[in-house]
C-alpha cells in the first residue's frame, strides 16, 4: 500500500463499543463498592439510577464480562479503576459454599424469597470464565471450580439428568418462586437449569475439565427431561399445564439454548445440534424478526405490551454465531442483519434523544424524594449515554416501562457488538475468511465495507494468505466480481464464499455485487411494518415512530459513499475470545 486507503464511513462496531464503555465507567456506584445500578428512570424529577436485587450477581457478572470484551474492542485503558472495583464487588458476594449471594434488599425478606439465585450463578460464571480465559488467573479458576462444586451440591438428580427445581434458595433450602409477571406465576419462568451450562462448557474447552462438561451434559438433559423442562424435541418451547402455560421469559430460554447448542457442538452430538437448530428457527419465527427485534416474553399479547428485550436479541445473535461457526454458514446472514439494524439502533447515542421524551411525557414526570443509598442522581442523563433502554418496539427506542438504561440489556448489547465484531474474520494459519461485510482492522487484514451505500467490500492483506469472502444470500452468484489491485481476478466458490488461493502482503482485493434495494413487509409481534432494505441494512421503516423514532437513516439511502478521517482501531492478536 502506498497512499493510505480511504476508509468508508460505515458501521464500525468499535465506535459503538467506545460509547458503551462510557456507560460501563459511569454506571457503578463508588459509594457502594462499585455495585452497578440495574435500573434507572429519566421520567422523574430528578432523574435517577436505581439499585435492585439484580445488581448483585446478575449485573456485576455482566459488567465483569462486559468490561473485558469491551476493552478488547476499544483497546484503551480508560476506567480501569471502575473495572477493578466491579470485579472486587462481584467476588465479595461469594460464600464458603462457592456460590454467589444477594445482599440486603429493601422490603424483601430473604427467608421468604431466597438469597441464592440460580440465575445469578449463571451470570457470575460468565463473568468468571471470561475473566479466566482472558487472564488465566489461577485465583479465578478456583472460584469457577468452587461454583461447579456448589452447583453440583444443590442440583437434583434423576436418571441421567440434573436440574434446579426452583429459582432460589435460602440457607440451603429451595424457596417457592416469587416473580409474577403478566398475570401468571411460573417456576419455569427463569429456566434456572439452563443458565450455568454455556460457561461450564467454555471452561471445559479451555482447560479440559471433564467434571464441568459432565455436569453441563446432565443439565442439558435436564432442560429436555426434568419435570419442568423447557424445549420439545421439535425445538418449540414446552407448554406446561396450567398455570405454567404462559409467561415465558424468552431470555432465559435463549440463554439455556446457547448452553445446549454449545454443548452439542463441543461433544459432536448431531441429534442435539439438530434440536438446537430447530429451536433457533422456532424462536426466529415465533418471537423474533429478520432485523433483530426479539420479544421479551412468549407468546405475543398486545402491541403495547410486546416490547423487545435486547438480551434476547443478543442471545439470538449468539445462537446464529454458534450455528454458523459449526458449519451452517447461512446463519451469518442473520448475524449481519441483526447487528446492522436493531442491535445498534437500540443504543442511546447522545443526550439529545431525551428531549422528545421529556416533552411528550412532561405530565408524567413525577417528583421524587431523593433517597440516598437506593438511587443516584448526579448527571444521570449524560451517564446513560452508551446504554440501551433494553425495551423498545420496531420503530421506537423507548416504550412504556423502559425509560432508563437497562442493567442487563446494556452489557448484553455490548456482548452482541463483541460477538459480531470478533467474527467479522476467522483466522486459521495461512488463511483468512471474511464472514461479515463490516469495517475491521487487525494485524493480518483490514476490511473496508462500502455497504449499505454500495455492494462493495475491500480487503487489504497485511500478510500473505488464502482469502475467502462471504457473499450475502440476496446476491445472484453470477453477478459477483472480484479484482486484485484493480485487475479482475479469477476466483473459486467455496460454499457462499469467493476464494482466492494466494493474496500477497499489501494487495487489495475488491469484491463487488449489485445491492438489493426493496421494501419488505414483516410482522413484528402482533403488528406489521414496512422496511426499506439496502442489502442487509434497514434504511427506513413505515410507519415511522413518533417519539424517538428508529431507523432515521435517509442519509444511508444513497449510492454515494462517505469517508472517515480516523483510522480503524486495530484488534489485538488475541482478539477472539470465544
Ligand atoms: Zn435485559
Put the structure in a nutshell.
This protein has 578 residues and is an alpha+beta fold.
Q: How large is the radius of gyration?
A: 23 Å
Oligomeric composition of the shown chains = single chain
Strand order of the largest sheet: 16-17-18-24-20-21
How many beta-strand elements?
28
What is the helix fraction of residues, given as a range?
Answer: 25-40%
Separate helix tally: 15
Low-confidence stretches: 180-186
Number of domain units: 2
Question: What's the shape?
Answer: globular
Name the CATH architecture of the largest domain: Alpha/alpha barrel
What would your notes on this structure say?
This protein is 34% helix and 18% strand. The protein has 578 residues and is α+β, with helices and mostly antiparallel strands. The chain has 2 domains: 415 residues, Alpha/alpha barrel (Glycosyltransferase); 85 residues, Immunoglobulin-like (Sandwich), CATH 2.60.40. The protein has a 6-stranded antiparallel beta sheet with strand order 16-17-18-24-20-21, with no helix packed on it. A 5-stranded mixed beta sheet has the order 14-15-19-23-22, with no helix packed on it. Strand 16 and strand 17 form a beta hairpin. Helix 1 packs antiparallel against helix 15 and helix 11 packs antiparallel against helix 12. The longest helix has 18 residues. It is globular. About 1% of the residues have low confidence. The structure holds zinc ion. Zinc ion binds next to helix 11 and helix 15.
